């Protein structure tokens, strides 16, 4: 191996791949058989964390950063004057195996710029995965990018070797896509996603009838959207997200705050801040949709197109729907418990367990470990004290903000100075 | 009068001490490791010998009252090596044996809660070792790693590494407790070695490791550097995820 050259390529192609946020390595079921290498049957492992606080679980690289497209938001766009490089299939295989053997990583996340055409690129990605599985007997985690426009046959093959497949839709709205990536077509993104979805359904059906069906993308599909590149509203992002969860059974949608990388006037200029707080609020909303039984229309709608910056989306919803509170912690159903600001799924489970033995009071709730800072204004329990009293939403919000200490305080104070209307983040 | 039972530090020794407690019907009693024992002015001391037969009787007896996972929790709490954990374990065992129902989820009991919390800490450390072990390929073809975990979690890590690295020889050595686990392509064995301090220094590395090994470390260090997004720097979060005491094992943090 020519380590000098590989090192150079690795620098370029890791740097270009880092804007893809997904690094999950869980949810697969590929056990080590016949004394092979690797096992990805259980939970994911974060082997390290970069200084930006993100998990390093997979070797995340591009096969090449040569690309025929010129999408404005992308570092590897054709017109960008950067160093280009390409790995050979065998080089990626060697890197993956040697990193894995040293316990650096859980597996490989392979993406690529599009060279020649979609199918040609997809074939190369599949070649890497196939080699790892068949020649190296590798059972670690493999995440492949589905290249927009790739043929159904190739997507079928990809799922046989990969644990997860993903297509990044990147720009949430059609008008944004037209503006920033005019050569790309929404249909091309959807085609491979649709195929993978159908294959997964088919796999599950066959599995019910037959004992031995080759496993197909056991960790499912995911996608990613860039936040803050095309002037979209939070509602537009989350409605798109909800649509993709529903129509394609996605495991995850990732939101990536746009990191300015271009002097293109269609985009936020270099040096402007990454919208970290907004990204955080979107993830909170995403969790509310997936684990807390909220419908996206409750959280974002015509009257309320953007999330509030200074409070989390659940609290924001509760303040707009005070008529549904307070709820009695000893009687409320799970659906309502999950809607109490400050309660997570774990607290809710603990409360439901504990209240079978006794009627819970404030003391009990505290010892269970439920967070009451926000919750106490929205619940009653086995006690005469009700903290919410008859305060208005604005009073409650003021009280809660006074008592809390947000890690985003610094950003919040500048943002609140810049804009008079707190419900406007998408500048 | 308070009795202190001193045992050899093994799990078997601890269980033998529990047997002794029941045999002599002791009430005011404390169980402590030999290395932690202090000469006390008041009370009596008794050195307990490990006895596998007696240990087994206690261990099997527990099965009638608590589940396998409850027993495993006791073992994990033991591995925490926290001073005084033996007494919480003894309370746990006594409570379990004297109750007609399974009490392992009765968290209103102080000792059960204490064991539960300790197990959580031990599990977290075990998971960290699954993540932070960094193998280096030695000149004799063994993937070698050193660790010094807060708790004695190595016995818990064995299965994970055995399943994962079924086709390579590996050795993980606990520098703090001076023993390691070695996998010889068939079984995992406990080993004790003389390990030179120099093995973890950059200068001496070429004497122990292959040239290729050092190249791969460089590649990994380089990858780590390049996958960071500088404009999102967040050291507080970084350190929360990898506390500084673990940095010494991490290849990527030593470049």
UniProtKB/TrEMBL annotation, chain A:
It comes from the Bacteria. Keywords: Iron, Iron-sulfur, Metal-binding, S-adenosyl-L-methionine. Gene3D superfamilies: Aldolase class I. This is Radical SAM protein. It comes from Aequorivita vladivostokensis. It holds the Pfam family Radical_SAM. The keyword Zinc does not apply. Its cofactor is [4Fe-4S] cluster. Residues 62-199 form the Radical SAM core domain.
From TrEMBL, chain B:
Residues 86-252 form the DUF4130 domain. It comes from the Bacteria. It holds the Pfam family DUF4130. NCBIfam families: SAM_7_link_chp. This is DNA metabolism protein. It comes from Aequorivita vladivostokensis.
């Amino acid at each position: 191996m020519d380590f000098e050259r590989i090192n150079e390529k690795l620098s370029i192609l890791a740097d270009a791949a880092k804007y893809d946020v997904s690094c999950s390595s869980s949810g697969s079921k590929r056990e080590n058989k016949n004394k092979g290498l690797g096992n990805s049957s259980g939970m994911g492992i974060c082997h390290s964390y970069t200084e930006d606080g993100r998990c390093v679980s997979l070797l995340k690289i591009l096969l090449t950063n040569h690309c025929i497209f010129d999408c404005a938001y992308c570092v590897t766009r054709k017109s960008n004057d950067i160093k280009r490089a390409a790995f050979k299939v065998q080089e990626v295989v060697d890197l993956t195996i040697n990193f894995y053997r040293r316990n650096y990583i859980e597996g490989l996340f392979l993406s690529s710029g599009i060279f020649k055409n979609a199918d040609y690129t997809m074939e190369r990605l599949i070649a890497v995965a196939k080699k790892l599985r068949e020649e190296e007997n590798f059972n670690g985690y493999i995440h492949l990018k589905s290249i927009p426009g790739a043929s159904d046959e190739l997507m079928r093959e990809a799922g046989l070797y990969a644990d997860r497949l993903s297509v990044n839709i990147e720009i949430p709205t059609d008008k944004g896509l037209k503006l920033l990536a005019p050569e790309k077509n929404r249909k091309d993104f959807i085609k491979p996603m649709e195929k993978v979805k159908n294959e997964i359904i088919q796999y599950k059906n066959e599995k019910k009838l037959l004992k031995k069906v080759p496993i197909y993308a056991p960790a499912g599909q995911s996608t990613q959207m860039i936040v803050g590149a095309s002037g979209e509203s939070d509602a537009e992002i989350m409605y798109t997200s909800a649509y993709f969860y529903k129509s394609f059974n996605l495991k995850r949608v990732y939101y990536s705050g746009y990191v300015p990388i271009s002097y293109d006037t269609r985009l936020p200029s270099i040096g402007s801040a990454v919208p970290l707080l907004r990204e955080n609020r979107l993830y909170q909303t995403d969790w509310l949709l997936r684990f807390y039984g909220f419908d996206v229309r409750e959280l974002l709608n015509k009257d309320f197109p953007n999330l509030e910056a200074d409070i989390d989306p659940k609290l924001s919803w509760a303040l707009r729907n005070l008529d549904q509170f307070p709820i009695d912690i000893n009687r409320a159903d799970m659906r309502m418990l999950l809607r109490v600001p400050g309660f997570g799924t774990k607290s809710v489970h603990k409360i439901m367990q504990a209240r079978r033995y006794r009627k819970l009071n404030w003391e009990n709730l505290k010892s269970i470990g439920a967070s009451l800072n926000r919750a106490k204004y929205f619940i009653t329990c086995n006690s005469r004290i009700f903290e919410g009293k008859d305060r208005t939403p604005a009073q409650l919000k003021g009280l809660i903000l006074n008592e809390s200490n947000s890690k985003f305080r610094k950003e919040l104070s500048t943002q609140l100075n810049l804009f008079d209307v707190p419900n406007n983040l998408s500048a | 009068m308070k009795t202190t039972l001193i045992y050899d530090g093994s799990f078997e020794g601890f269980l033998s001490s529990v047997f002794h407690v029941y045999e002599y019907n002791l009430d005011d009693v404390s169980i402590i490791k030999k290395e932690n024992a202090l000469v006390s002015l008041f009370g009596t001391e008794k050195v307990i010998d490990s006895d596998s037969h007696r240990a087994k009787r206690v261990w099997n007896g527990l099965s009638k009252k608590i589940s396998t996972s409850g027993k495993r929790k006791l073992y994990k709490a033991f591995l925490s090596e926290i001073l005084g954990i033996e007494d919480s374990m003894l309370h746990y065992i006594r409570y379990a044996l004297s109750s007609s129902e399974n009490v392992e989820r009765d968290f209103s009991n102080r000792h059960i809660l204490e064991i539960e919390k300790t197990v959580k800490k031990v599990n977290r450390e075990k998971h960290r070792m699954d993540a932070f072990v960094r193998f280096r390929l030695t000149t004799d073809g063994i993937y070698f790693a050193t660790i010094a975990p807060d708790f004695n979690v190595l016995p818990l890590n064995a299965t994970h590494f055995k399943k994962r690295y079924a086709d390579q020889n590996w050795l993980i050595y606990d520098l703090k407790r001076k023993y390691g686990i070695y996998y010889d392509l068939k079984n995992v064995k406990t080993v004790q070695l003389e390990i030179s301090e120099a093995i973890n220094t950059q200068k001496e590395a070429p004497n122990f490791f292959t040239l290729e090994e050092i190249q791969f470390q460089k590649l990994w260090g380089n990858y780590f550097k390049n996958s960071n997004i500088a404009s999102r720097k967040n050291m507080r979060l970084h350190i929360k995820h990898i506390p500084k005491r673990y940095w010494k094992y991490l290849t990527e943090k030593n470049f």
